[in-house]
Amino acid sequence: MAELVLIRHSQASFGASNYDQLSDLGHRQSEAVGDVLRAMQWTPDRLITGSLTRQKQTLAGMGFIENPEIHAGFDEYDFHDLLHTRFGGKAPDVVMGDRKTHFRTLRETILEWQRGDIHGTKESWADFACRTSDAMRFATETDARRVLVISSGGVIGQLVARSLHAPDPMMMELNLQIKNSSITRFVFSKGRVMLHGFNATPHFDSNPDMLSYS
Description:
This protein has 214 residues and is α/β, with parallel strands linked by helices. It contains 8 helices and 6 strands, in the order E-H-E-H-E-H-H-H-H-E-H-H-E-E.
């Protein structure tokens, strides 16, 4: 069977004016996960990223220099839009700037979004679920045997939950567990896609201080 390795982008710039850039730690994480794939002699024959800068920077930092295919279905949900919409146009500063408050509030917001209780967002939950499924089909309807995809935590959580036929809220429970630059594996054949490994970070085994979740 063919294999898809799905990497969550490395640490972005939480709290900065432009979140969509890797932090200094994020650049080091990217290099580390690239090194561990090469040490495992896992060489991709197809490269895909979402359209976000932090995803593209992660792939570049991994040392794979071929031009990737871009598929926006692998982009993260717009958490800024979701949070601001939930709070009537502007989320409180503490929600956007304090990590603990941010992720607690984000979890509550995603669950409301899934239930259809937030109105006026740029993307509905149904549209998010549909375009991530389309992205997975794009990645796996291929003759390639080793596909490398760089995406984001919410997308990975949704694809894992979908592969396990889990209820919608499980997507967010998984999302909050996914580490920066972690490795999630699927195997696929003839339209079937099966989870083969989740959220692994062997590249941090000897340096746990590099571990991060946002």
